[in-house]
Amino acid sequence: MGKKLGVIVPYRERDEHLKIFRKEIKKALKAQGIDYNLIVIQQDNAKLFNRGMLLNIGYLYAQELYKCDYVVFHDVDMIPKDVDYSYSDIPLHLATNFSSSKNNEVFDQYFGGVTMFPTEAFDKINGYSNKYWGWGFEDNELLFRCIKS
Fold first, then answer.
1. 118 forms bridges with which residues in the sheet?
2. What pLDDT score was predicted for residue 110?
3. CA 87 – CA 83 distance, rounded (Å)
4. CA distances (Å), 77 to each of 46, 81, 90, 111, 120, in order?
5. 61, 78, 137 from 69: Cα distances, Å
6. The pTM is what?
7. Does residue 2 sit in helix, strand or coil?
8. Helix (H, G, I), strand (E, B) or coil at 13
9. pLDDT in tens, 38-50
10. Distance from chain centroid for Cα 52
11. Which end of the chain is more exposed for a tag (fewer CB within 10 A), N or C?
């Protein structure tokens, strides 16, 4: 039996992006025959965005509610273009063949946007930091935790 994937999307006020993303991720995962649950974690507007905290919450849902074997943390504006979502026993940065839904810019120089982890590896590094409010640094710290671990 195959491994189950949790697709975790941090979200706030991007309805059009989410509509496109849902359609494209469903198409990509169906074509690859991957069993998955899509977990959209929404933050209200009371505070600055905390991407790391939202992803950690989504991870808890993937583990406790859906019993996923691995997860992919996926920004809503990164649309899959020929991406392999199959299980890996090591963390992988997948945002090397994606495009921004705004301008088709290809991303390949950072450890953010789309990262995949087996649940054991994510547990080992203790997830994302919850301390970053606003944009930035949570991906850099996640990479540091992976290297250190």
1. 70
2. 61
3. 12
4. 22, 12, 24, 16, 27
5. 12, 23, 26
6. 0.84
7. coil
8. coil
9. 999 988 777 788 8
10. 10
11. N
User: Would you state the pLDDT for residue 96?
Assistant: 63
pLDDT digits (tens, 9 = 90+) for 5-22: 999 999 887 789 999 999
Residue 33 CA to residue 138 CA, distance in Å, equals: 31
Whether the predicted pLDDT of 102 surpasses 70: no
DSSP state of 106: B
Q: Could you tell me where the DSSP H helices lie in the chain?
A: 15-32, 51-64, 119-124, 138-148
Q: How far apart are the first and last CA of the chain?
A: 29
- Cα distances from 121 to residues 22, 32, 69, 83, 149, in angstroms, run 26, 23, 11, 21, 9
CA angle, residues 146, 24, 48, in degrees to nearest 5: 55
φ, ψ at 144 (rounded to 5°):
-60, -45
Q: Rounded CA gap, 17 and 37, in Å? A: 18
| Ramachandran assignment for 40, one of left (phi > 0), alpha (psi -120 to 50 degrees), beta (any other) | beta
Helix (H, G, I), strand (E, B) or coil at 36: strand
